[in-house]
Amino acid sequence: VQLQASGGGLVQAGESLTLSCEYSGFDPDNYYIGWFRKAPGMVREGISGISGSADGTYYADSVKGRFTISRDFAETTVTLQMNSLKPEDTAVYYCAAREIGSTQYDYWGQGTLVTVSS
């Protein structure tokens, strides 16, 4: 099982960025993919997620209305579109997978750094 997050970078406040999580090695219909972020000195925060069939999504209040998660089954990719970025969105972003029905994320990708300047 592999997940690889990419797309991070440096942007100014108000700008947009798209993160991608490419996954392989498991049946996507049976796994929930989540996005997390970890800012310096802060606890890891789960910010978004999408179900195996892509008919269920989750957004933390901190990103609701600004971020959109989507799933491309053909490309085995989960995308996180981030709009209206704020300096407080600065963090290392990770994608992870858990089997549907489980609460434990078993598989994690490496992080991608997002830096939002004011």
Name the features.
seven-stranded mixed sheet, mainly beta, 53% strand, four-stranded antiparallel sheet, 118 residues
Topology overview:
Blueprint: E1 2-6, E2 9-12, E3 17-24, E4 31-38, E5 45-50, E6 57-59, E7 67-72, E8 77-82, E9 91-99, E10 107-108, E11 112-117
Parallel strand pairs: 2-11
Antiparallel strand pairs: 1-3, 3-8, 4-5, 4-9, 5-6, 7-8, 9-10, 9-11
Could you walk me through the main structural features you see in this protein, from its secondary elements to its overall organization?
Helices cover 0% and strands 53% of the residues. The chain is an all-beta fold. Strands 2, 4, 5, 6, 9, 10 and 11 form a 7-stranded mixed β-sheet that branches. A 4-stranded antiparallel β-sheet has the order 1-3-8-7, with no helix packed on it.
In short:
The chain has 118 residues and is mainly beta. It has strands spanning 2-6, 9-12, 17-24, 31-38, 45-50, 57-59, 67-72, 77-82, 91-99, 107-108, 112-117.
Q: Would you tell me the overall average pLDDT?
A: 94
Radius of gyration: 13 Å
**How can the largest sheet be summarized?**
7 strands, mixed
- SSE string: EEEEEEEEEEE
Strand content: over 45%
Terminal-residue CA separation: 37 Å
Low-confidence stretches: none
- State the helicity in percent bands: under 10%
Tell me the structural class. mainly beta
Number of strands: 11
DSSP helical segment count = 0
Shape: globular
